[in-house]
Structure formats: structure tokens, C-alpha cells
Design goal:
Elements (H helix, E strand, L loop, with lengths): L1 H17 L3 H12 L4 H7 L9 H37 L18 H14 L4 E2 L5 E3 H4 L24 E3 L5 H9 L4 E10 L10 E11 L4 H16 L5 E8 L2 E10 L16 E10 L1 H6 L8 E8 H9 L12 H4 L4
Parallel strand pairs: 1-4
Antiparallel strand pairs: 2-3, 4-5, 5-9, 6-7, 7-8, 8-9
Helix pairs in contact: 1-4, 2-4, 5-8, 5-10
This protein binds 3,4-dihydroxyphenylalanine.
Length: 339
């Protein structure tokens, strides 16, 4: 028996000495001290030992168990220390390495144009009003003198939610809301998203407009022209001319389209202005007296002018963007160009 104990001690010691990782070490622990391990086997064999020898042999087996246990613990500590050391080396961070540069994002071109427009008008005393995108027929159409059979109401163009609730097709809806809620004089700028069932290179089902409205005493078309001229000069820079062309909108009378000297050819005629020397930038007019009446403003006391600008159109002209869909694809190669 003593011989066997000695052999076991030696074989355990040499196995432990050779082990190089914790998993193997655990296997050795199980092989010697586990439930069916060799040392445990020795204890089971005690019944074959003569009764008078049992205390002595028992003591020896127990010593063996303690010795192997100690050797295992010692080795375990060594292996853990080695593991820790190599982890410290492999996971170390070189704090002297140059940092990855983080790139600054940039504003979306529509927001750039929106901010520029607001800035140009803010100096003239306009206030910002943001109306709801889900709008009542009342504000989007009826109060603005748009009768039931107007083409803009066509199911093809307007996205209806119910018979009387729709996605606003124009920021002009904000005009009626402001006029109903506040008393003149008014000077309002209303930017926001608008929606139409339309989708091609120059039309998007969602796009942006900026509405302008001024209501005061003695407002004439000259006020409209002066205001828009000052704004367009700021927006497109340089010595530009503007012209008003007669047009039609139900909520203005008279109505005009506003053109500006083509900034590509300076009026000579080119592909951008289709040879005319002029670029159409917005619709405008003198607020129709019926609209004032609808909003409880006395048209004999007050007059107004209004204008509506398509932000995508301005951005496309300003930056030479050929397709409106580029704005909404979120291709970073496109967006990065507006830093
Ligand atoms: N709401 C018009 C549109 O979406 C744009 C517009 C034209 C607005 C003339 C106005 C205006 O305020 O006076 O096409």
C-alpha cells in the first residue's frame, strides 16, 4: 500500500509539473481527487487493509490527498499569474498612438437652404410659424378659396386620411391658421414638409416649402416685389434682377410667378434657364380678399401679400442638383458635398 501511495504521489507530481493550462490541471484534479479518482480509490480499498494498520495507512492516504491538493493549488496560482501576464500584454492599449479622427457631419442641403432663407427674412422682422403636417381640409383648401373641384384637390395629388383630414399639400395652410389666431399686422414665415401623390425626377411625395405672409394696412404689389427682391439678392448673391409674371393661385389676386436672372448665364440664355435668361423661383401674390374675409380680417382695412417657395427647387438650382430623389436617398457621398 505504501508503495502504491508513493507511486501515486510521484505520478501526480510529474503530471502537475508538465501541465501548461488550467483546463488540463482540472482534469488532473478529477483524475486523482475526483469521485472516481485514484486517491479516492485508495480510500475505498481501505477495507482490505488489516484493521491494526488502518489508522496509519489512513493517515498516509490523507497526507497524499493534502499534498496533491496543495500541489494543484500552487500550480493553479502559477498558471493564473501567467495567464494574467499574457492578457496584460496582449490587451494593452498604446495610449501614445494617434487617435482615429472622427468626422463632423454636415447639415442636409434642404436644412441649409431652409436656414439661409430664414436668415434672409429674419432681418426683415418675420416670425416663424410651424403648422401641422396632418391638416384639416378647411385650412389646406376651403379657407384659401380652393373650391371642391380645384385640381389640387384631385385624389391623384392630395393624400387624404379621411374626407376632411389630409396630409397638407402646401404650407399655405399655415396662412389661414395664423390669420384666424392672430390680429394684423402679421409677418410670418412658415417652413415645413408638404405631401403630394407625385414621384419623378423633379417631384417627390414629400417635399419642403416655405410660406411667407404679410398682412398690414396699405400693402401693395410693390411691397411684395421689394421684399422678394431683397431676399433673392441675399440668397443668390450678386446683382440679380427679378421680374413678376402674371399667374393664377386661388388664394391670391393678382397672382404672380417670380423669376430671377439666371445665375448660370447672367441672363444671356443657357441650358439651365432653357435659353430665356430667367429662372422661376416662387409663386406669390396679393392675398385674395375672400381669404381675408374667410379668416375674419376686413379686406377694406387690411391687405396682404403671400409667397410660397419650394425648398428643393431652390436647393437644386443653387447646387446644380439634377434629381430631387438625391435629397432623400441619404447617400453619404451626396450629403458630404454640403460641408
Ligand atoms: N401654395 C402654392 C403651391 O404649393 C405656392 C404659393 C403660391 C404660395 C402663391 C403662396 C402664394 O402663398 O401666394 O404651389
Amino acid at each position: 500500500m505504501q508503495e502504491k501511495i508513493k507511486e501515486l504521489y510521484e505520478s501526480a507530481s510529474s503530471s502537475i509539473a508538465q501541465v501548461s493550462d488550467l483546463k488540463q490541471l482540472d482534469e488532473i484534479r478529477v483524475a486523482y481527487l475526483g469521485k472516481s479518482g485514484s486517491v479516492t480509490g485508495l480510500l475505498k480499498g481501505m477495507r482490505d487493509v488489516a484493521p491494526e494498520d488502518r489508522p496509519k495507512v489512513g493517515q498516509l492516504v490523507n497526507d497524499l490527498r493534502v499534498s496533491i491538493g496543495n500541489a494543484l493549488t500552487e500550480k493553479e496560482e502559477q498558471l493564473k499569474a501567467i495567464e494574467m501576464k499574457s492578457a496584460l500584454i496582449s490587451e494593452s492599449v498604446d495610449i501614445t498612438m494617434p487617435a482615429k479622427s472622427s468626422e463632423m457631419g454636415s447639415l442636409h442641403p434642404i436644412n441649409l437652404v431652409r436656414n439661409e432663407l430664414i436668415e434672409a427674412f429674419a432681418g426683415m422682422g418675420f416670425e416663424i410659424y410651424e403648422g401641422p403636417e396632418i391638416e384639416l381640409d378647411e385650412y389646406n383648401f376651403r379657407l384659401l378659396n380652393i373650391p371642391k373641384d380645384h385640381p389640387a384637390r384631385d385624389m391623384q395629388d392630395t393624400l387624404y386620411i379621411t374626407e376632411n383630414i389630409l396630409l397638407r399639400t402646401q404650407t399655405s395652410s399655415g396662412q389661414a391658421r395664423v390669420m384666424q389666431a392672430k390680429n394684423p399686422p402679421l409677418k410670418i414665415l412658415s417652413p415645413g414638409k408638404v405631401y403630394r401623390a407625385d414621384d419623378d425626377a423633379t417631384h417627390s411625395p414629400m417635399f419642403h416649402q416655405m410660406e411667407g405672409l404679410v398682412v398690414d394696412k396699405n400693402i401693395t404689389l410693390c411691397d411684395l416685389k421689394g421684399t422678394l427682391e431683397a431676399f433673392l439678392k441675399k440668397m443668390f448673391k450678386g446683382d440679380l434682377k427679378t421680374r413678376l409674371r402674371p399667374s393664377y393661385f386661388p388664394f391670391t389676386e393678382p397672382s404672380v410667378e417670380v423669376d430671377v436672372t439666371c445665375f448660370e448665364c447672367k441672363g444671356k440664355g443657357c441650358h439651365l434657364c432653357k435659353g430665356t435668361g430667367w429662372i422661376e423661383v416662387l409663386g406669390a401674390g396679393i392675398v385674395n380678399r375672400r381669404v381675408l374675409e374667410n379668416c375674419n380680417i376686413d379686406p377694406d382695412e387690411y391687405q396682404g401679400f403671400a409667397f410660397g417657395i419650394g425648398l428643393e427647387r431652390i436647393a437644386m438650382l443653387k447646387y446644380g442638383i439634377p434629381d430631387i430623389r438625391l435629397f432623400f436617398e441619404n447617400d453619404v457621398r451626396f450629403l458630404k458635398q454640403f460641408k
